[in-house]
# Entry
Amino acid sequence: MNLTSKKYLSQVEEVIKKAEAGEVYPVYLFIGDRPIIHPQINKLIDCLVPEEARDFNFEILSPDFFSEGRLLELLETRGFFPGRKVILVQDLPLLVSADTTKTRWKKTLAAIEAGDDNRAKELISRIFSDLKIDPKELIGLSSGQMKEVLGWPKDLRIDNLSEFLEDHGEDLECIEPIHTGSGDRIFSWLAQRADPTRAIIIIESEVVDRRCAFYKELKKHGPVVDLDKEKKDKKGGADLARSFIRSLVREKGKEIEPKAIEAIMDRVGHTDLVGLKTEVQKLISQAGDSIRIKAGDVCEVVVRHKDEELYKLTGAIGEKNLGKCFNSLSYLLDQGIHPLAILTTIANFLRKMIILRAVFEYGPGIQTIKNLQYNIFKDQILPEIKENMGDALPAVLKGAHPYALYKLSLQADDFDPDQMLDFLASMAEMDLEFKGGQVSHRVLLEMLIFRFISM
# Structure
């Protein structure tokens, strides 16, 4: 039974209501980012295991210790208290494959960029375990060598991972690979011995290969609540986000006016449910004793996440990744960002690249920067440049994060300085086209981006 329609939250509630009424299944599968699906799983666990029996009749099986034999042993062992046992299996290894490695690396890079070092370490250690690689073996390798060893996806940048391993490689846990089994023994248990009054499996996975045989077979035995699949549906994703906001607010005994919901959607967007949850929690906390959250509250408290998307757009331009550029552009336009604001962002990004190119070309040399590790750039090169330039230091270097400057400097090396100057001069004409031309703004921006990354 696959619960993947646009009414995700209502279907989660349906699963929980059935559990409350005694209609339970031997296995449940929840797919999606952990901050989103875990609260829903906790609600289900509350229905399945009384709180007084939780310490003895509920167990968590992490991927580092998973094997078919271990899971079956837990299922067959009676709980200390009367009633059913519930086993929560996290990130079941049997549901991932080589085809999901790229997605797992994306989540890892996102954790690194968000500064969530513990999460990044956990993900890297697990991937390396699956690849049977000791993380310490990669320390000191060039980016090209590291890509070869990891079988790195061609359209992902490895710079952030390289820097992270340089800083944290010694701290990574070396997890011994475990023989997980084929899954046949689990399905034999489900088909022949499963009794939901005695034992239930709940699986939570952030990444799943939906084409693998294990996943297809698992769907036959219980509900699959697939939030990741819902997020790919643009219209359904927006409806889901609105329902998600209302659900979070109701859980805390408060109300929210429709204009406030739309204001949140305008500032955060609908695809980042983790970001939505963070901002709604801030609103609830800020509301205090007030029952109703209003649009004015949103304007005071909620940050604009579209600034992050503008940053993603310029980052994709710097990487010369046309697909990423157009994805970010579509998101920004669909969220109502004015095309002239996007044009201004691109122009400012170009100015920064030109200034940095000039600064480093006539300082240590752009090729020197390209071959430097981040720590040397931050601790030696950047302070030296700032000291030498003194009061003449360009504004782009004042107060900017060293890593942002490092990445921008690397990207600037891939663009010809004379062409960048010519391109900047031509942007005045582009501005006139935006204000009075007959071509659509989306087409003009796509042409602009294509010209930019073709330099």
Q: What stands out?
A: Residues 1-6, 230-235 have pLDDT under 50 and may be disordered.
